[in-house]
Amino acid sequence: MSSYPYQIKSLDDYNQQYKRSVEAPEEFWGEIASHFTWRKKWNKILNWDFRTPQIKWFEEGKLNITENCLDRHLADKANVPAIVWEPNNPEEHHRVLTYKDLYFKVCQFAHVLKNNGVEKGDRVCIYMGMIPELVIAVLACARIGAIHTVVFGGFSAKSISDRLHDTRAEFIITCDGAYRGAKEIPLKGVIDDALIGCDFVKKIIVCTRTHTPVSMIKGRDVWWEDEIKKVETQGNADFTAVETDAEDPLFILYTSGSTGKPKGVVHTCAGYMIWTNYTFVNVFQYQPGQMYFCTADIGWITGHSYIIYGPLSAGATSLMFEGIPTWPDAGRFWEIVEKYKVNILYTAPTAIRSLMAYGDMYIEGKDLSSLKVLGSVGEPINEEAWHWYNSKIGKGEAPIVDTWWQTETGGILISNLAGITPSKPSFATLPLPGVQPVLIDDKLNEAQGNDVKGNLCMKAPWPGMCRTIYGDHERFRTNYFSTYENLYFSGDGCLRDIDGDYRITGRVDDVLNVSGHRIGTAEIENAINMHEGVMESAVVGYPHDIKGQGIYAFVIYQGSHGNNEMTRKDINETVTKIIGAIAKPDKIQFVSNLPKTRSGKIMRRILRKIAENEINALGDTTTLLDPTVVDEIIKGKL
Ligand code: PRX
Question: Of 359, 368, 602, 612, which has fewest CB within 10 angstroms of its CB?
Fold first, then answer.
């Protein structure tokens, strides 16, 4: 017997639930919400208008998400592992935090935050490696009603500084350093660089991980461990969760769009909690006692929703891994699966393709028989990778769920449900209950029936959708709700096949998906253009065997420093400093000019075709100011 009354049990059940969710959404979600812990029940379940846009779920309901992730499990799951942590170095000891342990650690750290002046509504920037203290920090913020904004450990000082300015965060939680494979990343050092010009930051709490020497500024910087000792001497074991409104912000997470400046996506407490829990329980068909392993980093939305909030609100055991799939060798995931008898594995196509390329010898001899469900997220999974994942990892017996969603959607919107609804290679398949996808064709009409394609939009809100862009509601409106009237526009192209299954075909805007990381071309161009000697640049994506998409930069360079190879390295260094190593171009082609229209607009479509090696499909080039630049660029193609 499952302990989740709203867990879908069969294809028929799915069809019925889906129908109900569309016909009577308030009744449907009200019933599901009643299985959570509330301080005060809501007055109205849903209030929405995509024109303004305004989206409110469970209005005037009061709760604290950590009471749902921790306190409510203490009665029957106190000794169940909540977080199992596998360190970067396989020689180091792993850690297990039961629900009781995690509860106490979160309470303790909530006291630390309070002692250091953090209050409800304050923004707290978290820049840490993948250690349990990161989960503790996130939940402690939520417990006191502070808004966490986690920044991925691979982002540069400049990126952190931009985010700090945008949120005006006065508090930072970081580590001395982080381990990632053979590398050691000096997190506190990066924070110190980021803080130049951020005088509004009052406190930095530094957790020890790598024992890297760090500078600690008196009065501003404190050690995590010292602060915990103070709380221990105060003898405060519990920390009563601060009551939040259903619609209070829970966190801000930055993501890239088609303009240069990343957007601070805001998720709120109740809707997000219910959505991550509901989708976790249904898509993976989680059963109490199972070992669930999501390989994402908590710096991205997948880690927020499917390492922390979804699994913990469901009382599941969430395995978190500090390292990378290929260190010390490409068998690391499979060793972890064997060691902990992982039942559900949720990873990204880029990791699958990379491990597939290393060869099957890393799987040989590993016992993967515990695996019951496999998941994929972040980018389209190509058929070859799907089949490898299915046959070599799942031995043909573990259903693969191909989960489509976005930072903005909070949780999974389109996916098959493991073992319940059918899977189809490279198809996300069917919408979750509450999700109403529509495809809009070139003529701005809703594509009717099956065997059609168009831009993927949503017709109605679901509880987990983001509510605004931090500090810029107008940008929220123009970005998602102004392309098509009364619809949320995802930015993805999509087709619906003859069976009614959805297949995501990729972004239709200027956003790239590189190794599952979302990066705007404008953001990369801005960084390249900051390099001395660069006059102009244009960035496009191209198919890449491992990364899914690679970054191809066309650059007009008039500097005189060094040769092309050196300049390429210098430009890459600049991009690393401005954004982070994830945004480094794979290819940099120097050109004397870019294809532009007479009005000066760069024709990226042409550059994309060149980068994709489709020079016979360039289309009309006669509208270009100087069509000869195209020949020159084709000749110099890398
Ligand atoms: O293009 C889609 C792709 O990733 C984008 C969202 O990126 P991000 O906000 O970083 O969130 C990633 C983790 C949810 C989408 O617009 N994408 C995500 N999942 C899939 C996908 N494309 C195809 N299939 C998927 N399963």
Answer: 359
